[in-house]
Design brief:
single chain, alpha/beta, seven-stranded mixed sheet, four-stranded mixed sheet, 8 helices, about 35% helix
Length: about 280
């Protein structure tokens, strides 16, 4: 009988930390770039508790599109969310020398794919952008911050938030490198340190699947508190929660409607590359 391997829970790391050229190490994860061509571009192997990744990626391959490719390989290896994150960071950092240069390459490539429509996530960003009501936005659980950067590029006053300080520090470095203006906050999405009705629209794109029902309800209530006009929520539809991405629950349209209905606010739900809920905060 197949048994899921024991996987590591790694300590948080600094994505901008110095590393040797072509090599990224964190905990039990080592990512090494090779000049020799590797079949499929990326090879992931596990020996005991050690996860070794070898790849032959070039700078043009560094983008958010790698997430899907790496997810397939990581899921097959039974890796944890923290290992997945270490692999993604390692692929970026081992491909281009210099922390800021490596991440700026990743960000520029990703934003080009997202705005041109070639990224799998592009329809989600485009839909969310269309649903923004007003000139100011607070985005919950921003992660890399691609959506806040998209809004900033067209002059929207935007605040990006995330629970992890390292993620926010990376985004701060990239806003400077890209010449865009995005304010940032390190905070829990259920407790945002801003006044009531602080922005026109609050967005939460692919966030609720990362938290349990009780936490999700608290996030929806907090979003309604912060928004003057509208709250926009997007979730993926999955038959099984994607463990390596940190998903802890699944949604269909009925489950999403049930989740937002508990807020008491008027809402609409619809399906478009997953599920959407638009809540009236007024």
């Amino acid at each position: 009988m197949w048994e899921r391997p024991v996987t590591a829970t790694l300590q948080p790391f600094d994505s901008l930390a110095p590393c040797a050229p072509g090599v990224w190490r964190h905990g039990n994860v080592t990512v090494t770039r090779s000049d020799d061509r590797i079949a499929g571009g990326i090879h992931i192997g596990r020996s005991g508790g050690v996860l070794e990744v070898r790849h032959s990626l070039t700078a043009d391959r560094l983008s958010d599109a790698l997430v899907g490719e790496v997810t397939d390989r990581v899921s097959a290896s039974g890796s944890s969310r923290s290992e997945f994150e270490a692999i993604m960071v390692g692929l970026v950092r081992s491909t281009v020398p210099g922390a800021v240069a490596a991440w700026a390459t990743f960000y520029r490539n990703s934003l080009t794919e997202l705005t041109s429509g070639t990224s799998d996530f592009a329809p989600i960003h485009a839909c969310a952008d269309d649903l923004v009501d007003g000139d100011s936005v607070l985005d919950l659980g921003s992660c890399f911050g691609f959506f806040p950067l998209r809004l900033a590029s067209r002059g929207v006053d935007v605040i990006a938030t995330d629970l992890h300080g390292g993620t926010v520090r990376l985004l701060d470095a990239m806003t400077t490198a890209l010449g865009l203006d995005v304010a940032t906050l390190v905070c829990d999405a259920a407790s945002v340190p801003v006044p009531d009705a602080h922005v026109d629209t609050v967005t939460a794109l692919h966030l609720l699947e990362h938290v349990d029902l009780r936490s999700g309800d608290a996030i929806v209530q907090e979003a309604l508190r912060v928004a003057r006009r509208r709250v926009v929520i997007a979730v993926p539809f999955e038959e099984e929660a994607e463990r390596c991405h940190g998903h802890v629950r699944t949604f269909d349209l009925a489950a999403l409607a049930s989740a937002v209905s508990r807020s008491g606010a008027p809402f609409d739900v619809f399906e478009h590359h997953g599920g959407w809920a638009v809540l009236d905060a007024r």
